[in-house]
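INFO batch 0412 | record 1 of 1 | parsing
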Amino acid sequence: MKFEDIYQFFDNPPPIYLSKELAVCYVLSVLVRGESYGTELIQLIESEYPAYRLSDTVLYSALKFLEEEQAISGYWKKVEGRGRPRRMYRIRADWRDLSQDLARLWHEYATKTNHFHPEASGQREPVREGG
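INFO prediction complete | emitting tokens
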């Protein structure tokens, strides 16, 4: 290891993987905008929040939790050009207010100042003197 490796780590840190708690709030933040499916939820976090990642295991654990709590409902949708149906998820009407509150928690968490991931907070990366 060299000191330049340390600077490289902070200049280009690894992504932060969501815990189940964060995943629940993130999923609801997407579903308050409209229905979605698993692969799209993973793709959206990578495009909308580049500093964060969501593993399949944590995602499907969060979706299962939300279904068991009857916060969301899932249904199978046949997609043209795709062999098998896709599992779609949407927020149940009686959970809309709580979902918006939990989505707000995600947005606050994901957009707060983040020293390791300035792109996640919209903050500019500090300029390193002499380098």
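INFO post-check: The longest strand covers residues 72-77.
INFO record closed
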